[in-house]
Design brief:
The chain is of the alpha+beta class and 468 residues long. It has three domains: 11-52 and 157-229 and 383-467, no CATH class; 64-137, Nuclear Transport Factor 2, Chain: A (Roll); 249-369, no CATH class. Helix content is 49%, strand content 12%. It has 14 helices and ten strands. Strands 4-3-2-1-7-8-9-10 form an eight-stranded antiparallel sheet. A two-stranded antiparallel ribbon has the order 5-6. Helix 2 crosses helix 7 (159-180), helix 2 (21-55) crosses helix 12 and helix 7 crosses helix 14 (436-467). It is elongated.
Length: 468
């Protein structure tokens, strides 16, 4: 790999000094660390800020949006049928899609309505039946934050950028660990390894702050990148398809000999869980008898032990089912149930313990990623990693600015031994192969690098030719 976007010293001058192999490898790794950071930093800041906000979704809803999420308990709650009816009066052009049970005695109920392809959220007081608020789902704060976090706010294709960034984040952590690794600094009091030197006026202080923060939080950044990848548009879909085909995700035996529709669970439930997103919605057997109704369906689901706050989707058509899902903070209590709309009999009942090992591992990772599994400690740990990611990005930007030559990009110098650079690049490409979109981005970067070098080389030689 060659020097991009900058000139270099003449080869004869460079060859006068022999550089130790360790320093040559260091430069090659530093160069790739720089490239990965150059691509990732703006996105990492966005992901860290939106991720930190989403960690406190419940707290934000209970304070900033208490007018629609918090109610005063009084008497006996109304049934779902009545609440859905009230929501239909508030949104007369809408069709009810699902009802979400209050998660606690002071929580509001939620009815999701559809108007064409758009969804509207209607928040209701479950005791009085009053409509507290109604707004398009695309404008609800936590949904906007989540779509910003995944970049789907800018279209489904933009989500692929998150996948590329997550792959580069893995490369950042691995290369950063190599750059941080102590090489004789122990005798200097651990400067740049576990403590800071100089003052903020000096670049070395920012370098040490970046290195020490990476040492303390690099594992967390790696965890966030890896646990976020299953939600990515291509890699996550492929992983889910592979795990399901291998019997390591969806428990397909639960659907054996049962009629199913072509509708996936994600089309009827807002939170079907990572493993069950593509699971088919079962079909009810049409009968002359009337449907059991939403109130009865909710009672059956409660009697089955579904955790509070479950979402219950209404049947779509004569063969539709009542589909319920609960995804509480305790990941192991996650559950999904489908009821025949005429008999109320459970058609599919999937508990967390019945999901395959890959599905369980990923949903546990997602729960930890969202700060939901170990209570406040999990939440605060993920917040610390988000803040550390922002600090790493800021210190990297300051370091680059302080060392950047005027008018140039300031790419770390190319190692003199091309074989070392090729070897390190091969290792980076190997990591990229684990995340194909990142691998393609790496190949594009190498092509840009070589093209820039080919364009710059004649320009660098002109003064020497003129002098002769």
């Amino acid at each position: 790999m060659s020097v991009p976007f900058q000139g270099s010293a003449p080869a004869a001058a460079r060859d006068r000094v022999r550089v130790p192999l360790r320093e040559t490898v260091y430069r090659a790794v530093w160069r790739w660390h720089f490239y990965a950071g150059l691509i990732c930093l703006p996105f990492l800041i966005l992901l860290a800020v939106t991720g930190a906000l989403y960690l406190f979704k419940s707290e934000i809803d209970a304070t900033a949006f208490a007018h629609r999420t918090v109610v005063a308990p009084v008497g006996t709650p109304l049934g779902p049928d009545r609440l859905v009816y009230n929501a239909m009066q508030a949104v007369p052009d809408g069709v009810p899609l699902s009802y979400t049970e209050p998660a606690g005695p002071t929580a509001s109920a939620l009815v999701t309505m559809t108007i064409g392809a758009e969804k509207t959220l209607v928040f209701l007081d479950p005791y009085r039946g009053h409509v507290l608020d109604a707004l398009p789902a695309a404008q609800e704060f936590s949904i906007v934050v989540r779509r910003l976090h995944s970049l789907t706010l800018f279209g489904s294709a933009a989500n692929l950028v998150v996948e590329i960034v997550a792959g580069f984040a893995v490369i950042l952590v691995i290369t950063g660990t190599y750059l941080w690794w102590p090489r004789g600094q122990g005798g200097k009091g651990g400067g740049g390894v576990v403590r800071l030197r100089e003052t903020p006026r000096r670049r070395v202080w920012w370098r040490d702050l970046h290195a020490v923060t990476g040492f303390l939080a690099g594992g967390g950044l790696l965890f966030l990148a890896l646990t976020g990848l299953p939600w990515s548009g291509w890699w996550g879909q492929e992983l889910r398809a592979w795990s399901n085909a291998a019997g390591l995700g969806q428990p397909r035996q639960l659907w054996a000999d049962k009629p199913v529709s072509a509708v996936p669970m994600r089309a009827v439930l807002s939170e079907p869980g990572w493993t069950m997103q593509d699971a088919p919605v079962p079909r009810s057997q049409p009968r002359a008898a009337p449907a059991i109704g939403l109130d009865r369906a909710a009672d059956i689901v409660r009697d089955m032990g579904m955790p509070a706050g479950f979402e219950l989707a209404l049947p779509l058509g004569e063969a539709g089912v009542y589909a319920a899902a609960a995804y509480p903070r305790d990941v192991t209590a996650q559950r999904m149930v489908s009821l025949d709309q005429y008999t109320g009999q459970p058609l599919v009942d999937v508990r967390f313990s019945q999901i395959g090992p890959v599905g369980q591992a990923i949903q546990l990772g997602i729960g930890l990623h969202k700060g939901e599994f170990f209570g406040r400690a999990n939440q605060l740990a993920m917040l610390a990693f988000c803040l550390a990611t922002i600090l790493l990005s800021v210190t990297a930007g300051v370091m680059w600015w302080k060392r950047r030559p005027a008018g140039r990009l300031g790419v770390p110098p190319l190692p003199r031994d091309g074989r070392v650079m090729a070897g390190v690049t091969g290792l980076v490409l190997g990591l990229g192969a684990l995340f194909p979109l990142t691998g393609l981005a790496i190949l594009a970067l190498i092509g840009l690098d070589l093209g820039a070098r080919a364009w710059l080389r004649p320009r660098a030689l002109r003064p020497a030719a003129h002098a002769s």
